[in-house]
Fold:
Amino acid sequence: MDEKLGRIRRQQAAAPGIMMAKKKISDKPSSTGEDRESVVIRFAGDSGDGMQLTGRQFSNTSAIAGNDISTLPDFPAEIRAPAGSIPGVSAYQIHFSSVDILTPGDEPEVLVAMNPAALKSNLHDLKPDGRVIVNTDAFTGANLKKANYEASPLDDGTLASFQVIAIPIATLNAKALEGIDLPRKEADRSKNLWALGLLYWLYDRPLEPTLRWLERKFAGNDILIEANRTALLAGYAYAEASEIFTTHFRVREALIAPGRYRKITGNEALVLGCVAAGILAKTQVIYASYPITPASEILHGLSTYRRLGVRTVQAEDEIAAMGMVVGAAFGGGLAVTGTSGPGLALKAEAINLAVMAELPCVIINVQRAGPSTGMPTKTEQGDLLQAVFGRNGESPVAVLAQSTPSDGFDVVLEAFRTAVRHMVPVIILSDGYLGNGAEPWKIPDIESLEPIDMFHPEGGGKPFHPYERAADTLARPWAIPGTAGLEHRIGGLEKEDVTGDVSYDPANHQRMTDLRREKLKKIADFYPPVEVDGDGEGDLLVLSWGSTFGAVRTAVGKCRGEGRSVSHVHLRHVHPFPNDLGEIIGRFGRVLIPELNGGQLLFLIRSAYLVGAEGLNKVEGRPFMVAEVASRIREMT
Amino acid sequence: MIDRSKNRATPTRKDFQSNQEVRWCPACGDYSILSQVQKIVPTLGIEKEKFVFVSGIGCSSRFPYYMNTYGFHTIHGRAPTIATGLKVANPDLSVWVITGDGDALSIGGNHLIHALRRNMDIKILLFNNRIYGLTKGQYSPTSEQGKKTKSTPAGSPDYPVHPVSLALAAEATFVARAIDTDTKHLAGVIERAARHRGSAFIEIFQNCNIFNDGAFDEFKARDVRDERVVRLEQGKPVRFGKEGGRGIRLRNCTLEAVSSGPGEEPPDCIVHDEKSRSFIAYMLARMEYPEFPVAIGVFRDLEKPTYGELLDEQGDFRIAGDTAEALRSLLHTGETWVVGNE
Ligand code: SF4
Structure:
């Protein structure tokens, strides 16, 4: 038990801890330009303008250049909303820094607006006195009208409080590409690279990573490589030569723990975690899923890992995906599915079968704004209660929450360990913000990853009892078809204790219901102690879960820096709660629970501990800003 | 896993009977199907522990409890999905789905279609009694139009679904029909389904003597069945009636039943071809009494790569031998960079 506990502790330490391991930068003198600690910028344009790609390039380059990064992509659910319209705006925010950062930043200092709609829908987030770089070519009468501008905001004083850099980007880009054999329409498609080049100069970024990427992306099409390369270099050269910027800025390397790094999104981390789980368990991973935003990338990612033991099935619907997971778990595989809120609703029935049949499986829910179809590409934490309670009957499942993009790797490993050790379904709550957001990730030490113990009994002449339980976990044996001598029947009907035969006996149903609940509670015996960030007692405890980690940790740190008595507990284990949580809560005068929902953890904490916790809640489809959380903490301390 | 399959006595029918008391109503058609399955499975040369019976919800879905094999009594309509996951995880198993008309064609219609079209190597036995038994007698998707039940006191307005034509349309590679009481024929069809590589679908007319007694009597009753049932046999003319005096032929793209004079063969009968992809199988499946005799037997038996085989063809699936090497290949592939000393 102690050894297991230690193992979990080590896994935990690897999660948000990576970011914590970074040290403060030493101030080196700057050769050119001005040094900045951290910068937040945002690219915004039409969905067809390639803003996601531009943002990803900027963040890759910054990560490779040694910055800490955190990103916030924001794109429409429609594949192609009408060009130039506000619903069609796609944006990508990047926070890059020479110190440890945990959020994509509250307010960008630079907004690149490729058209009027992008300006209109993003300007309100720009820092006062921030820079707005506009592509004037797109500010035509028709485009202004589509963005509901009566007069051009470039002329009417709308932008008076900002530094406006008006550039005919499309025209300049077309001019740069004149020698290349491409129709104008095609040439126009690389204007995002032109803008990227401009920003690369402004923030002193290396060009090589993007140039290398262009070679890979357009391999075999020399004209496109040339066109995009030319656009990138032209933007860069324009910034340097035109003197529109008086200086450029340097964000130095973050002094972070030595090691090998890669940039990772939340969905990518979940993919790597699933594959690693199979390797560590020396068994196959079966991922069955139905495409759904924002979880589809997990299916795409896992479908490329057959060589490392992953089989994926694209099911006919969400229900089927979960049914396949239950079947695969019965068959002895590491079975996992991924979905988003509406899909979790459909999966409830088959998850409940796994509860009754006591089969191990993992369900990843990359939450999005609901109810119903809601806002598919926008983030929310609205499914906590659905995960904990959303099934018929007394149906306990374990629920874990991912806290940062890279944490996806650790959370999946923990979910599989829990599932197979306790023979339960485990739901992982991620969300759109984590799924699409990216950060640098220190690749874990391979030797530090503990094997996942899989135990399947063998037939041995004795009569086999499929519901005979292990003493420490109350888990039943995972006997798999194909094992001679252990033939048995399971199913969704209530089981008789020990034998697993169908039973409608009232006392037995009570006993089995208690056992299932007790079994779930025992999971908490394997958790590491809850970590309190800050003092172990005080005026205010901020309690959070999931993707709000970065904003809440940063806000609490800030407020503590102001001398306030505030500490932070971030929950990985949202069901069942850690054994020591109640006691910790009791050591604080007040409790604040910030969540991107109407108060769901708040509901659970109040009912579990009978405390008057207070909520900070919003559902705007986007993450908390640090300032929102900090200002509430200030009100309360 | 220790292979205990060697040096074991060949299993018998008894080995496949579980210790559970069978709880279907006395004289229910399910008994005869259970008995035929228990008769056939020991003869297939497959180890007992490799059989898995997966079911949904309904009277028929109690079936797995009565087989002394691995079994999973799952949830309403979803058995094909659970069977699919099981087969993907463990391709060596012989996976069977036991389902009914409500389970497979109403709540689980979608899953049935997709399991069949994928050519998953699973055997689906659909017990069609044209009624909801377990919920005590509402009409089902195969009930005839106008059926008066507890939920349709004025008669059901629904047009029924035809299970075999649905399975054919879903591209199942083995599609057959049998009758619970015609046990020898039933056993033969079950055996062929078991030996088929790919998705196999059998509609079995099953009498529910409590809620829909005699649903098939008008053609299956002993005294009339020769005239009203036609058995399809590969490569043979489609004939029925006393001494094969009647037959089915194709005229102007429709079927018609023809009769011969005494002692003669009926003219121009269709020669049954299970290997054909033509629409004739579909038309034979839809023959209904009284206009036609009802066809039983194998409508289609095609060879086509299964889902599992197609996945295997994509190659390179393997479970990593060397954990450290596999993890390194997983985590260090793609764009990475080094900070300080690695
Ligand atoms: S209700 Fe009908 S189908 Fe169900 S067991 Fe009784 S006779 Fe059989």
Notes: Chain B touches chain A through 68 residues (CB under 8 Å). DSSP finds eleven helices and twelve strands in chain B.
